[in-house]
């Protein structure tokens, strides 16, 4: 069930189902579902008919004991089961000893007086496990996996519309790049932009630049763009700013290696006729990152990308073995590459 359908159903259905499973790593959407259940049942987290159990700390036996507890002056209890890692292939050395047979037994015949909601912040389950199969069969499944680019944009626009604030198209792209198309991060940072634009009712690129902090990955992405466009002065300035911020050259070089590796992987898969979604699955990267990589990799030949990758890997080796000064090596790479690619 999609998040939009789920929120509507939770709010309007006559009787809630006894078991739900909320699967996906998008924390903003998981929080929306939590709020929807609490609002629907008109209870707070301090209510006697509400319990939250972290299954990384407490056992399934404790969870089932709570599920089998009679509601206190009410028709139903609400029970949140957090982090059911046993649904995945993950193994915890110091985790609690879970009696999964008892959980399967409960799922076969859940009590109607308890609404048991599993919050599983994982994008993939281990489908081979008996407990996973049983839960997926018995529970109402709600998808909270990371959204596609168009869905993130839609939700950002909806929030802005509610606040009567507009955003420039270029500022929106800049904002989504700075928040790495992460819905949770985007919604959090959007609050600042809305407050800043309360007087004018419009968010500009300058406002995004001033208010939204950039991660090291964001800065290295921009650095990569400047190098590949042949803008040596801008690239050197960006690199030196990162040094002033305390970033290590070896770390910057490593992220740049990862960026060029992604461009190269995308270029190879595009040659094979694969589309954005399939490429994202293959390289295990966010579709938005793949989209940007596709735009960049089209501008360069495969041999050029391979040459850049080899040079960065060689520089990494020289830096770590102390053959040459790290800063000198990286600045030399910027100058040589930018001069070769100027005008792209």
UniProtKB/TrEMBL annotation:
Residues 217-336 form the DNA polymerase III delta subunit-like C-terminal domain. It catalyses: DNA(n) + a 2'-deoxyribonucleoside 5'-triphosphate = DNA(n+1) + diphosphate. Keywords: DNA replication, DNA-directed DNA polymerase, Nucleotidyltransferase, Transferase. GO terms for biological process: DNA-templated DNA replication. The keyword Transferase applies. It comes from the Bacteria. It is an enzyme of class 2 (transferase). The keyword Phosphoprotein does not apply. GO terms for molecular function: DNA binding; DNA-directed DNA polymerase activity. NCBIfam families: holA. Belongs to the DNA polymerase HolA subunit family. This is DNA polymerase III subunit delta. It comes from Enterococcus italicus (strain DSM 15952 / CCUG 50447 / LMG 22039 / TP 1.5).
């Amino acid at each position: 069930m999609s998040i939009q359908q789920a929120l509507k159903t939770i709010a309007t259905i006559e009787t809630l189902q006894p078991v739900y499973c909320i699967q996906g790593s998008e924390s903003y959407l998981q929080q929306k579902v939590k709020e929807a259940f609490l609002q629907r049942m008109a209870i707070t987290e301090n209510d006697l008919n509400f319990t939250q159990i972290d299954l990384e700390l407490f056992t399934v036996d404790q969870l089932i004991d709570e599920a089998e507890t009679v509601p206190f002056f009410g028709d139903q209890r609400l029970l949140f089961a957090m982090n059911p890692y046993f649904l995945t292939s993950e193994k915890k050395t110091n985790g609690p000893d879970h009696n999964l047979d008892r959980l399967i037994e409960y799922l076969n015949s859940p009590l109607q007086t308890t609404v048991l909601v599993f919050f599983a912040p994982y994008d993939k389950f281990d489908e081979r496990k008996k407990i996973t199969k049983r839960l997926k069969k018995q529970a109402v499944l709600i998808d909270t996996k990371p959204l596609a680019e168009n869905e993130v944009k839609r939700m950002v626009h909806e929030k802005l519309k509610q606040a009567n604030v507009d955003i420039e198209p270029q500022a929106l792209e800049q904002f989504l790049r700075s928040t790495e198309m992460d819905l949770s991060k985007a919604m959090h940072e959007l609050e600042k932009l809305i407050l800043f634009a309360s007087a004018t009712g419009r968010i500009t690129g300058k406002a995004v630049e001033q208010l939204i902090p950039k991660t090291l990955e964001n800065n290295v992405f921009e650095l990569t763009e400047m190098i590949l466009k042949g803008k040596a002065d801008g690239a050197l300035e960006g690199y030196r700013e990162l040094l002033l911020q305390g970033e290590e050259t070896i770390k910057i070089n490593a992220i740049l290696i990862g960026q060029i590796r992604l461009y190269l992987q995308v270029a190879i898969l595009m040659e094979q006729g694969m589309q954005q979604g399939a490429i994202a699955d293959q390289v295990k990267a966010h579709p938005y990152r793949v989209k940007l990589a596709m735009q960049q990799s089209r501008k360069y030949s495969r041999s050029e990308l391979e040459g850049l990758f080899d040079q960065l890997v060689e520089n990494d080796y020289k830096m770590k073995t102390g053959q040459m000064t790290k800063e000198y090596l990286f600045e030399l790479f910027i100058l040589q590459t930018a001069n070769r690619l100027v005008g792209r």
